[in-house]
């Protein structure tokens, strides 16, 4: 069988079983094992086992359950509620002030938890009712929460970045450093969009009445709410950038910070620890199975010799090296609408990375573009996770159609961010070059 027919059959089988609704890990692993057996025979399984064993010995993997555990604890401490009260007092006097405050809280959450969804649920529960009660347009309120909630996988620490580093072999610390400036860029671009839009259409997000803006003593007292989150961020990112800890050891520092936060907010209870631990075991188990499947997929793909075919197809894309990068971004953008981000990484990165490196592009820079695309995937229909998180907590009067419509301008802002990072790669590469 020709390599073209084999590649078509391989990816067609993956797509077929995924559309049937079967779990990604078992589809990816099962199809790969079948193709391995018929292309290389039984001995190929030893190669997969050897690769998996090498991954399981990776110290970096320990960071995943630790960051997940940290996120599970921080979700239940009450940090988000106090942060929102502070933003309410300081930003409420501006048109769109509550939306800007919500963005800021999402960025802080992103710098603490490392996963998407935590900020969406927290702000959907706390900020959304407050904005709707004060006359905010529902599309503006929903779009802000949806966008900011996705930053958890871009602003470090990020579990998706750890997986990217494991699959591609780049430094986790460099990926974390590379995510800081693009995260700030997207936050600034989104804030500019909100301010300009609310200036042109004041009815979308009215300023709070004077009696709700608080006195100066109240505002300064509310600033105490940021001390613990800043402390957690410094414990995690500061220890990495300062060279005190590795990213894995910094995850343990983050867990310590989360436990201290729970104690300060008087939420340090056995029931919370137990629930957080069980959810961590579930998520970590799922991630590990997906990693096993990734190795089987990578081995099967390489054994078929399809790498040369894909490189040949990519070389036919007009526009030279930049045309190839843009084509990759479009492919990932479209896949992110229908597939899980981890699955997209496992399917595309073994194909894309050799091409990216052969063209002379920085894999760290490409990783940031890739992660931002995954972030957009969290907020775009039909299967964006953030859309369903929101639908689960919004009032019955808000439909799925409302949520879908709300994200359109914010997706455009994110795409502008990607274009700027492509034009000015230093936005992503400056900090890694400085610190590492």
From TrEMBL:
Pfam families: DctM (PF06808)
Keywords: Cell inner membrane, Cell membrane, Membrane, Transmembrane, Transmembrane helix, Transport
GO CC terms, sorted: plasma membrane
Primary location group: membrane
Annotated membrane topology: Multi-pass membrane protein
Transmembrane segments: 6-38, 59-79, 99-128, 140-164, 176-196, 222-244, 250-268, 280-302, 322-352, 364-383, 403-424
Assembly description: The complex comprises the extracytoplasmic solute receptor protein and the two transmembrane proteins.
Name this protein carries in UniProt: TRAP transporter large permease protein
Organism of this sequence: Marinobacter flavimaris
């Amino acid at each position: 069988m020709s390599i073209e027919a084999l590649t078509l059959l391989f990816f067609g089988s993956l797509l077929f079983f995924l559309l049937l609704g079967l779990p990604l890990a078992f589809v990816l692993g099962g199809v790969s094992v079948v193709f391995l057996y018929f292309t290389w025979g039984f001995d190929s399984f030893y190669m997969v086992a050897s690769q998996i064993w090498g991954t399981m010995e990776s110290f970096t993997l320990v960071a995943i359950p630790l960051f997940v555990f940290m996120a599970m604890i921080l979700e239940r401490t009450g940090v988000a509620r106090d942060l929102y009260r502070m933003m309410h007092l300081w930003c409420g006097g501006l048109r769109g002030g509550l939306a800007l405050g919500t963005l800021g809280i999402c960025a802080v959450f992103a710098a603490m938890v490392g996963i998407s969804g935590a900020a969406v649920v927290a702000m959907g529960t706390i900020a959304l009712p407050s904005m709707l009660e004060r006359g905010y347009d529902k599309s503006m309120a929903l779009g802000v929460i949806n966008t900011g909630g996705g930053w958890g996988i871009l602003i470090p620490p990020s579990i998706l970045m750890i997986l990217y580093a494991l699959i591609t072999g780049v430094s986790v610390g460099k990926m974390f450093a590379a995510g800081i400036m693009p995260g700030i860029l997207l936050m600034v671009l989104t804030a500019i969009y909100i301010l300009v839009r609310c200036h042109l259409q004041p009815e979308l997000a009215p300023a709070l009445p004077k009696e709700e803006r608080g006195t100066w003593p109240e505002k300064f007292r509310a600033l105490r709410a940021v001390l613990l989150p800043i402390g957690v961020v410094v414990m995690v990112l500061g220890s990495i950038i300062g060279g005190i800890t590795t990213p894995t050891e910094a995850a343990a520092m983050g867990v310590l910070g989360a436990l201290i936060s729970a104690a300060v907010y008087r939420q340090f209870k056995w029931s919370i620890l137990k629930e957080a631990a069980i959810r961590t075991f579930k998520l970590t188990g799922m991630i590990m199975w997906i990693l096993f499947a990734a190795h089987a997929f990578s081995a099967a793909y390489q054994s078929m010799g399809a790498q040369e075919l894909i490189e040949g197809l990519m070389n036919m894309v007009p526009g030279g090296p930049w045309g190839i990068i843009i084509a990759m971004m479009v492919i990932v953008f479209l896949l992110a609408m229908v597939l899980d981000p981890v699955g997209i990484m496992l399917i595309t990165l073994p194909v894309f990375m050799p091409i990216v490196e052969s063209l002379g592009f920085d894999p760290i820079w490409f990783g940031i573009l890739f992660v931002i695309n995954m972030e957009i995937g969290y907020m775009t229909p039909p299967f964006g996770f953030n859309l369903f998180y929101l639908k689960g907590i919004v009032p019955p009067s808000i439909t799925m159609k409302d949520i879908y419509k709300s994200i359109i301008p914010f997706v455009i802002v994110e795409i502008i961010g990607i274009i700027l990072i492509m034009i000015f790669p230093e936005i992503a590469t400056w900090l890694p070059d400085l610190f590492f």
